[in-house]
Specification:
The chain is α/β, with parallel strands linked by helices. The chain contains 15 helices and 13 strands.
């Protein structure tokens, strides 16, 4: 077993045994626990076949929540978004997509936009923030689609203000482009924007949403938009191999997430802000020479923490803290763009709602004392 494999095993074991955590990691649930949460509201309901039944019920619920004419279920967000951008390229006659270089298609999809769909990308900005309307307006070449990742994960789960988002959409329209939202985490954006989901989604021509990132579903995603766009997307879904024979486990868990987790997300966002403020206070009073909470006031229930140490050292300290105290504050750290600085993501869900500021201070102190030189 390699050091990385051993560390991963210890992280999962510590997370499962923890008495206190801000959220549970995606690898900590067992097959039995996941299956136990899949009881159908009506166990006699017929199973789905190629997307009917419970899958159709899920699609209708998503369209209702987002205020769109229709929605289609996809086995993955990567497939949903690839197809959306491919459809728009065909409809606009322009294969160029304007998006942030730190967005999901650029970093985590193996170059599929160009390799699979023949699209090309341009970047309004390279800064670790959302682009501005002026940058979209000033792009040197025409583009058919503006894709906005809401929130922009790699930059700290950042969202524009509502006024900035309206201006971004307007700038794209002025360029005769359509607007697609990568809304994998759109569900929790309502607090920051101060707008309901249907008003946010209503700014775009299409929206992709995930069912596992914030809602706790098994997997899967949906693409929402006009009836004609979704009809075309369903054709491409079949061509891409996404018309799966049975999908009721994913659909049932997604419906459960919409029922159970979606109403709780505003409370997670509020608690994330409490945790971030307490963590900033605790770090400021600690021996740590420098830190950054990004953003200082989280836009969603997720945010970044930056510290001036190596990633392995920080991850080991976090694992030891969990193993020895039963409290999970930090999990895995990653090297930052500057040597000697590392970053981690914190997520607050139901498990973290009872953390007080004092709990954060105590957890941070326990972590820092385990940062062996």
């Amino acid at each position: 077993m390699t050091n990385d494999e051993d560390l991963a095993r210890r992280l999962v074991a510590a997370g499962r045994a923890a008495e206190r955590t801000l959220s549970y990691g995606g690898r900590e649930a067992t097959v039995g626990e996941l299956l136990a949460g899949l009881a159908a509201p009506d166990p006699d309901e017929p199973a789905d076949v190629y997307g009917d039944g419970v899958v159709t019920r899920l699609e209708e619920r998503v369209a209702q929540l987002l205020g769109t004419q229709d929605a289609a279920f996809f086995p993955s967000g990567t497939m949903a978004q690839q197809i959306a951008l491919r459809c728009w390229a065909g409809r606009t006659g322009n294969p160029v997509v304007a998006l942030h270089p730190a967005s999901h298609p650029e970093l985590w999809e193996g170059g599929a936009l160009s390799v699979v769909s023949g699209l090309r990308t341009v970047h309004p900005t390279k800064e670790p923030r959302q682009p501005s309307a002026e940058e979209v307006a000033d792009l040197a070449e025409p583009f058919g689609t503006l894709m906005l990742e809401l929130p922009l994960r790699e930059a700290g789960f950042l969202l524009p203000t509502w006024e900035e988002l309206e201006a971004l959409v307007g700038a794209a329209r002025d360029r005769d482009a359509v607007v697609h939202f990568d809304g994998a985490r759109l569900w929790e954006s309502t607090v920051h924007f101060g707008r309901p989901l249907e008003e946010i989604a209503g700014l775009a021509d299409s929206v992709y949403v995930s069912f596992y990132k914030s809602l706790g579903g098994l997997s899967g995603a949906a693409l929402a938009g006009s009836s004609s766009l979704i009809a075309e997307a369903r054709v491409w879904r079949h061509r891409y191999g996404g018309q799966v024979f049975r999908q009721f486990p994913q659909a049932l868990s997604a419906l459960d997430g919409l029922e159970r987790e979606l109403p709780r997300l505003p409370s997670y966002v509020a608690q994330a802000r409490t945790v971030a403020a307490a963590l900033g206070e605790a770090l400021a009073g600690s021996p740590v020479p420098w830190f950054r909470i990004n953003p200082e006031t989280p836009h969603t229930h997720q945010f970044q923490v930056w510290l001036p140490y190596g990633a392995d050292r920080l991850t080991e300290a976090g694992v030891r803290t969990a193993e020895e105290t039963g409290t999970v504050l930090f999990r895995r750290w990653s090297p930052g763009p500057v040597p000697g600085v590392s970053v981690t993501e914190l997520t607050v869900t139901a498990a973290g709602l009872d953390w007080s500021a004092q709990d954060v201070h105590e957890a941070l102190k326990a972590f820092v004392t385990r940062l062996d030189p």
